[in-house]
Amino acid sequence: MPQSQPQPEPRPQQSPAERPGPVSRVDVQLGERSYSVHVGPGARNLLPEVVAVLGARRAAIVTARPPETVPDPGVPSTVIPVRDGERHKTLATVEDLCRRFTAFGITRHDVVVSCGGGTTTDTAGLAAALHHRGVPVIHLPTTLLAQVDASVGGKTAVNLPEGKNLVGAYWQPAAVLCDTTYLETLPAEEWTNGYGEIARCHFIGAGDLRGLAVHEQVTASLRLKASVVSADERDTGRRHILNYGHTLGHALETATGFAVRHGVGVAIGTVFAGRLALALGRITAGRAEEHAQVVRDYGLPGALPADADPAVLITLMRRDKKAAGDGLAFVLDGPHGAELVPGVPEDVVRRVLDGMPRQGGPAKP
Ligand code: GLY
After folding, report:
1. Which of 122, 222, 230, 265 stands the most exposed, by the fewest C-beta atoms within 10 Å?
2. Nearest C-alpha to atom 2 of ligand 1 is from which residue?
């Protein structure tokens, strides 16, 4: 008999979530509703600790990712699979989730854990806000967009056929675990989507984040967001600045049936915001060009879709929640930094839209 060769011990596979790494903490200060956002590789592994601190007895895990990507919460749990995407962000999904929570016996002494992109954290967050008039929720955002923006700040909402985010509630999470290893498998279009939000941070107080590691970009964007939300939770003033580039961005999303994705719309909207601020004499030509440059440096498009109709975009922008009956309103850069500028004349908006570069067309000066 041949002597058997000694076999090497199988090496335990270390999953990305278990790989140690620096996890930083950003606090959102809201009195008794304060919470921490943990950012870095392996942050998801804090889930059982956070659930234990909450004292939750059971957990409903609403996940758009494979269930094994969510750590065991350490209490009895049920997994509710969902799908990311604007078309699933509906009241019907919220009703379905609440019925599943009821079937599992979820009460205010329990917790909802959401795992997925911003559409999932928005929808699960709203279901948590409504179920028994409020069940704690912990978000595990898995896309760059959800990590830098959607999962933090307590805005939850779903869409109606009439428009985006029309039904919602403020419901702050109990914690957010931004595990940057979730980003390792993101498709290119999701990176673009998230970088649209990071690019607009350049003009609202985050400083220049170009060239930093993604973990640092996420942390810096979140520090800015946490400070703004702590100062104005209900979006009555300062929080408007987070909507930099969003007025045109939302109009482009709606006009194209979401073919233009949120972050891409924000990137184009940021270039437009620079040009509009220049047209209104609020900033210099150099600062307006900086808008286009930053968007380019993040690898984002800054040109309008070839078939975008300025008249349609203006009609949609008039419906923006910031407009508040004062005609067209935009968050614009200026001598005092970014601020909400109401009553922007339509003819100026039209002229700036007409002067925007078009995708596939020659760059306009
Ligand atoms: N995404 C804008 C906000 O949270 O206010």
Report:
1. 230
2. 242
Predicted confidence (pLDDT) per residue in 120-172, tens digit = 999 999 999 999 999 999 999 999 999 999 999 999 999 988 778 889 999 99
Distance of CA 195 to the CA centre of its chain: 10
Residues 226, 219 contacting (CB under 8 angstroms): no
For residue 199, count other CB atoms closer than 10 A to its CB. 27
Q: Residue 325: how many CB atoms within 10 A of its CB?
A: 7
Closest ligand 1 atom, CA of 149?
1
Rounded to the nearest angstrom, the distance between the alpha carbon of 113 and the centre of ligand 1 is 21
- Overall CATH class of domain 214-355: mainly alpha
333 lines ligand 1 (CB under 6 A): no
- Considering the four listed CATH numbers 1.20.1250.20, 3.40.50.1970, 3.40.50.300, 3.30.230.10, the one that applies to the domain covering 24-186 is 3.40.50.1970
Q: What is the pLDDT of residue 364?
A: 47
The model's pTM is 0.89
